[in-house]
Amino acid sequence: MTNHPTSPGPVPVLAPDQLKRVHAWWRAANYLSVGQIYLMDNPLLREPLLPEHIKPRLLGHWGTTPGLNFIYAHLNRAIMERDLDMMYIMGPGHGGPGPVAAAWLEGSYSETYPNVSQDAAGMKLLFHQFSFPGGIPSHVAPETPGSIHEGGELGYALSHAYGAAFDNPDLIVAAVVGDGEAETGPLAASWHSNKFINPARDGTVLPILHLNGYKIANPTILDRIDRDELDGLLRGYGHTPYYVEGEDPEQMHQDFARILDACLTEIREIKRRAREDGRTERPRWPMIVLRSPKGWTGPAEVDGQKVEGSWRSHQVPFSTARDNDAHRQVLEGWLRSYRPEELFNETGAPVEAIRTLHPEGTRRMSANPHANGGMLLRDLRMPDFRDYAVPVTEPGTGAVESTRVLGEMLRDVVTRNMDNFRVFAPDENNSNRLGSVLEATDRAWNARTVPEDDHLARDGRVMEILSEHTCQGWLEGYLLSGRHGFFSCYEGFVHIVDSMFNQHAKWLHTTNGIEWRRPVASLNYLLTSHVWRQDNNGFSHQDPGFIDHVINKKPEVIRVYLPPDANTLLSVADHCLRSRQYVNVIVAGKQPQLQFLDMPSAIVHCTKGIGVWDWASSDADVEADVVMGCAGDVPTMETLAAVDILRSHFPDLRIRVVNVVDLMRLQDDAENPHGLPHRDFDALFTADKPVIFAYHGYPWLIHRLTYRRTNHHNFHVRGYKEEGTTTTPFDMCVLNQIDRFNLAIDVIDRVPRLQGTSAHVREELKNKLVAHSEYIRVHGEDMPEIRNWQWSPNQPSEETTEEPV
């Protein structure tokens, strides 16, 4: 080992027998890992290796796996000696054979899957199922006991680890960061998570940066930079790095054991100082840098080309062992180099020396309940959302910031759940009008402060870092280890976590089919500062497309809500916070807006998810001429304003107003468990009348959701058309033709009996659009009749008294 000034001296830690056992466990895990990649029969090599023993398609990743197994063996030794509560997060999740092998050696795999028993038959099935049709994935997937981090997409190991550590005071999360993963932007930001951890009440993350030199084919940056540069980087992130380097197993075992013990002792002392001495300064947490060959213990060369220590070992070091006799001999020699006859007894079970080199029960990392968070999940202690209701004496009146009202409820959710609920936002909590939460808690912060700072504290529960990736990763780790959370974000920038959402939604869908996985709390998004009210920021901040992205996932795990006012937002948020196994997307504006439903009406409306607003309709007991559909706060207001215009000009026009809160209700129940049966949908939208639908996002999504409906050919949808700038609120609607005047014109153009008799009204509405455009360019704000409009169905729309431009 190359000594480092902060590293302890080279004193042996492992006694000879202990060293032998740790090395045997590592050999066994490596043997099982190679077997999973290559073999489908003859698991213990009790006969010569034949072509039919080898899988026809070889899939998996060997290169990182021996390093993962090495670390796992040493963590097990430390857990047993120190009685630690520890989780293992593997950033290189493609090294899936390793944790599967570890779980099998610990016995938890056979407990979870009794048919994969700890014997020769079970080993054969363990090998056969890996990356095989009808078997298990090659990554550290939900099927793997002990995993909350699949690692399919790299970059999230540390953020998931810290999320699991928050509010888990006795938990240590060992987080392996691959050197390829360390090049990703999300991982680079997540190193700063140590500025948000509170050693007095949170658990600990022990980062282990594993340098093995290569990605798929390219070298890794952190492996190739100078030691001083790497050391400066890691110290700059706030860590004290300890280094273990080499390839000789005996030396590496001793060095890693010594460094691991030093780190764990340092962690224990940091916690003691914080909890017993009240030391509040931010500590420099220890971390380990492990440098080992890629594909360690694998074939040195194949066909004259270097494999061990090379990029060639990244996936399957050689792929023709079934058909190539020479390669098959290499594979058999590789497997026999681990001496399986010393590792497994006559029945195929691990020998006692290996079987006893792991902790018992839930101290096993593959059986830690934090990695099956639903086992630990407690219901939130919820206030009654009705207590925050906004009075609505007349629908379509008033001016309330709906998300500010929600902030008051979230404040009390925090107050009642100070150990298992946190609010996450990328520097946007107050901007999104959730500032009331800071009456109950502060922002988490464990770095330097100055007197001018606002609401910063080591024990704060509002998690703000200007990294959507890190917020999402923290929240996922927090949820998957058994807690609850709420994530608010600007609508236009939530796309930054598109792929993270993908991974989480897939995880939820998969775990729905895994009986032993317990349901976890839903991941709840509030998307605000939305497309229709970007008065300050303009076109760069305008994008409602996250909804389209979410809709692509399995309907069993996603929900999208568009509450039109404060009371519906409260009802929806209460439902989402109580739910399990969903990703809930709530889209609601933060600007003052009209209120439509009192709380009893809001509850009924949200429970149904879609419904006719009788008070805004004029088709009672008669056949409707047109249906005006709407989803979203601004589209709802513009729809009602259009109805107001139409009723003032065409008092005998029969209009039905249908508002949608739960977007999934538009799909049919054969496609979506939350969808409406065709009969119910037709009862709302008719089977043959024109439907003018104003939607918050991209209009084609509504067509996609309703294409199987009887009356789909009569749907005309208005929504966002990528027209935007820094302009007035109403002008945004006009630019995208979702405004009241264009909606009213759409009705005139599509209701047959109006088309030949309403030319003058149509021309008047066109003139209104011209007048609007001229007015805002002189006055810089919308016309008074727009700014001051409220629902008044029995009176003509008030005209402005200001002079025309």
From TrEMBL:
GO terms for molecular function: aldehyde-lyase activity; magnesium ion binding. It is an enzyme of class 4 (lyase). Coiled coil: none annotated. Pfam families: XFP, XFP_C, XFP_N. InterPro entries: Phosphoketolase, THDP-binding, Transketo_C/PFOR_II, Xul5P/Fru6P_PKetolase, Xul5P/Fru6P_PKetolase_C, Xul5P/Fru6P_PKetolase_CS, Xul5P/Fru6P_PKetolase_N, Xul5P/Fru6P_PKetolase_ThDP_BS. Belongs to the XFP family. This is Probable phosphoketolase.
